[in-house]
């Protein structure tokens, strides 16, 4: 992997106070993000993707939530960083886009001003300069007639256009990392494809790294370099995209891949995984997938398996005591 | 915007007509003969009949109704049965002081209520929130006259900062302001209790919205998030509620006017009621309707200013 990681997450655990007790919604999250790399976080809804992202921006915390572990952005620790420091990183160094474009924008502020605000907050430039720059980014994300639409309000735009505005807002200070939390889930399929393509181009042109959250493996294939698969608050497998699709090792990943409908086959078989994702309060101490796992043994129930190479290549790690064997490669 | 206002005005014509009809019907079904009321029980039948002709009471009801509408259209509400003054002149003489009081208490209520409500919401479930909530509850349950009398005792009687009785006739602007201070404070603080409560709940809702998280995610400092994003949105429902309250305020100023002995519409209407001065009562009811229609119109316009999603319609 070229260069030091821009982001390094180690042993991250997000905990919520539920009914008087602290419960860990995520546990032992480890991953690095290299410069210019796109890492996809995949998992069913509720597995902790969004809160992982939010904790990277220091947006969690306060009364009912706490964050443990370490999140290093270019060597600086984000966990426990004072709010005033965090404000300088948010939007400037690490930016975020959200799932729901319909509610992510302030309804009573012109969209152009919302983009310009990010610029003037961080770069401290004049109103006119911020506006020019904001317009530049509106054009870059292909909003037609940007100068005329600068003073329009969010309700005057379609969902796809709003998401473009959110993206322009995130790009406005040319951050090094973009956290994209299911940015296309709420959009039509055709718009999805456009936005994905544009995000990929923007990342390449602006030399950004991206953490891309999705629950769709199809989207992963289209955008990511590496994938981390999450289950019930943990990363169960992490690998380069091609590798993961070709040779998944964790039983959960295997089941997920089998559940993708394939158009190139005569009959589409959807192999559902029996059982349900446990709720936060029901998490056991061992492997959280064990209750649903066909290969689970007693050892699996006792201690959580570590994310490790387990006989495979160093870049492909899996949190399973009985992973699928490494496939022989024709070299 | 102008079109919107004109449209709104046109829509209020049926309301106005309904109120006029109601007023007409009410004054006809109230027992008692107005001529008797004016002339006294000792009047001769001839005099009563003459007055009936003069007042138009001998004509069929539908003609009386049309006549009444025509008079209203000309701004003629008749004369007071008690003083003989024209109803319009009477109302015009007290309208300024009522409007003055209403607007001043609105300003006081907003200036105190909005920041307090926002402050409480930001510090939800802690000391400031508890204080504002307790204060608001007190304000909402305290009758205006009790609070007014308290203020009067402390600031006028004890400290002598403000006049005990509002001066009448022409006075300097400063005198006028001094006389206005306590009544406006009475109504304003009670209104603030209400506004603070509405602002707080509106603000709490807005603070949980996605766009607040978006603003934070782009690095906007918390104070700016509150001011630029949260408050600007939280104020929208407050505008509506304040507008609705405005009608109540105009109607309820009577107790305050009594306590501070201020001239005003409220006092006038109570006077007319006790003296069975029907023309005055009738005229004031129409005036109230007009005022409330205007207040609603202004509220709609203000709402449009604060909320761009309705502005374009
Ligand atoms: N503020 C909160 N308080 C309690 N539980 C929360 C809170 N936010 C999220 N959770 C829980 O944490 C888990 C992970 O949520 P999230 O990260 O939003 O999932 P997703 O993978 O769908 O993005 C969910 O079970 C959710 O219910
Ligand atoms: Mg999510």
Describe this structure in words.
The complex is a heterodimer of chains A (331) and B (313). Chain A is 31% helix and 20% strand. Chain A has 331 residues and is of the alpha/beta class. The longest helix of chain A has 18 residues. Chain B has 313 residues and is mainly alpha-helical. Chain B folds into two domains: 59 residues, no CATH class; 223 residues, Orthogonal Bundle (MetI-like fold). The chains are: A alpha/beta (331), B mainly alpha (313). At the A-B interface, helix 2, helix 3 and helix 6 of A face helix 9 and helix 10 of B. The site of magnesium ion has 4 residues of chain A, from helix 1.
Summary tags:
heterodimer, A: 331 residues, alpha/beta, 7-stranded mixed β-sheet, 5-stranded antiparallel β-sheet, 11 helices, 12 strands, B: 313 residues, mainly alpha, MetI-like fold, 13 helices, globular, binds adenosine-5'-diphosphate, binds magnesium ion
Compact summary:
The complex is a heterodimer of chains A (331) and B (313). Chain A is α/β, with parallel strands linked by helices and 331 residues long.
Largest sheet of chain A: 7 strands, mixed
Which protein chains make the most extensive interface, counting residues with beta carbons within 8 Å of the other chain's beta carbons? Answer: A-B, 32 and 24 residues
Number of H- or I-type helical stretches of chain A? 11
Low-confidence stretches of chain B: none
Shape of chain B: globular
CATH classification class of the largest domain in chain B? Mainly Alpha
| Main sheet summary of chain B | none
Overall tally of domains of chain B: 2
Give a topology summary:
The complex is a heterodimer of chains A (331) and B (313).
Chain A: E1 7-18, E2 21-24, E3 29-33, E4 38-42, H1 49-56, E5 65-73, E6 76-77, H2 83-89, E7 94-97, H3 111-123, H4 127-140, H5 146-149, H6 159-171, E8 177-181, H7 189-206, E9 209-214, H8 217-223, E10 226-231, E11 234-240, H9 241-246, H10 251-258, H11 298-302, E12 317-318
Parallel strand pairs in A: 4-9, 4-10, 7-8, 8-9
Antiparallel strand pairs in A: 1-2, 1-3, 1-5, 5-6, 10-11, 11-12
Chain B: H1 2-29, H2 34-39, H3 45-55, H4 61-73, H5 87-122, H6 127-141, H7 144-158, H8 173-207, H9 210-217, H10 222-259, H11 265-274, H12 278-306, H13 308-311
The complex binds adenosine-5'-diphosphate and magnesium ion.
């Amino acid at each position: 992997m070229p260069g030091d990681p821009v982001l390094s997450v180690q042993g991250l655990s997000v905990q919520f106070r539920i009914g008087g007790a602290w419960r860990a919604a995520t546990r032992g999250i480890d991953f690095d993000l290299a410069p210019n790399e796109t890492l996809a976080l995949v998992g069913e809804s509720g597995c902790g993707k969004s809160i992982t992202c939010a904790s990277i921006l220091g947006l969690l915390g306060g009364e009912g939530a706490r964050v443990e572990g370490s999140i290093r952005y270019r060597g600086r620790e984000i966990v426990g960083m004072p709010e005033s420091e965090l404000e300088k990183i948010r939007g400037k160094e690490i930016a975020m886009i959200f799932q729901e474009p319909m509610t992510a924008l302030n309804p009573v502020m012109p969209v152009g001003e919302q983009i310009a605000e990010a610029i003037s907050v961080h770069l401290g430039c004049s109103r006119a300069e911020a506006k020019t720059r904001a317009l530049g980014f509106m054009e870059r994300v292909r909003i037609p007639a940007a100068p005329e639409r600068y003073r329009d309000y969010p309700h005057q735009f379609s969902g796809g256009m709003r998401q473009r505005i959110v993206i322009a807002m995130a790009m406005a200070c040319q951050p090094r990392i973009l956290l994209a939390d299911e940015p296309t889930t709420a959009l039509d399929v055709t718009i999805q494809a456009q936005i994905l393509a544009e995000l990929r181009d923007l990342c390449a042109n602006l030399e950004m790294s991206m953490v891309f959250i999705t629950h769709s493996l199809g989207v992963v294939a289209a955008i990511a370099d590496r994938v981390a698969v999450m289950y019930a608050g943990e990363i169960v497998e992490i690998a380069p995209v091609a590798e993961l699709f070709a040779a998944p090792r964790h039983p959960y990943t295997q089941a997920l891949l089998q559940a993708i409908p394939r158009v190139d086959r005569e009959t589409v078989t959807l192999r559902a995984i029996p059982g349900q994702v446990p709720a936060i309060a029901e998490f056991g101490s061992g492997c959280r997938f064990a209750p649903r796992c066909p290969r689970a043994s007693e050892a699996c129930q006792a201690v959580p398996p570590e994310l490790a190479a387990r006989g495979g290549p160093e870049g492909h790690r899996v949190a399973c005591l009985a992973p699928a064997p490494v496939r022989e490669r024709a070299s | 915007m102008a079109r919107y206002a004109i449209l709104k005005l046109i829509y209020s014509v049926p309301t106005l007509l309904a109120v006029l009809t109601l007023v007409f019907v009410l004054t006809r079904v109230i027992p008692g003969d107005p001529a008797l009321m004016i002339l006294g029980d000792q009047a001769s039948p001839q005099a009563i009949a003459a007055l009936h002709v003069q007042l138009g009471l001998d004509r069929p009801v539908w003609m009386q109704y049309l006549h009444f509408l025509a008079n209203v259209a000309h701004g003629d509400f008749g004369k007071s049965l008690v003083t003989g003054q024209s109803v319009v002149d009477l109302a015009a003489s007290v309208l300024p002081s009522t409007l003055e009081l209403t607007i001043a208490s609105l300003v006081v209520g907003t200036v105190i209520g909005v920041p307090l409500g926002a402050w409480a919401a930001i510090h939800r479930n802690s000391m400031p929130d508890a204080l504002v909530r307790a204060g608001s509850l007190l304000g909402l349950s305290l009758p205006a006259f009790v609070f007014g009398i308290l203020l009067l005792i402390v600031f006028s009687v004890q400290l002598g900062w403000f006049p005990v009785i509002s001066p009448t006739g022409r006075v300097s602007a400063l005198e006028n302001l001094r006389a206005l201070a306590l009544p406006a404070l009475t109504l304003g603080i009670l209104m603030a209790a209400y506004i603070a409560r509405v602002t707080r709940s509106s603000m709490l809702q807005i603070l949980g919205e996605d766009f607040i998280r978006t603003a934070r995610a782009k690095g906007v400092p918390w104070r700016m998030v509150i001011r630029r994003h949260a408050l600007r949105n939280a104020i929208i429902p407050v505008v509506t509620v304040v507008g609705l309250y405005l009608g109540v305020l105009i109607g309820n100023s009577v107790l305050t006017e009594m306590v501070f002995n201020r001239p005003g519409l409220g006092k006038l209407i109570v006077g007319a009621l006790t003296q069975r001065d029907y023309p005055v009562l009738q005229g004031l009811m129409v005036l109230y309707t007009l005022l409330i229609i205007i207040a609603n119109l202004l509220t709609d316009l203000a709402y449009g200013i604060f909320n761009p999603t309705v502005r374009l319609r």
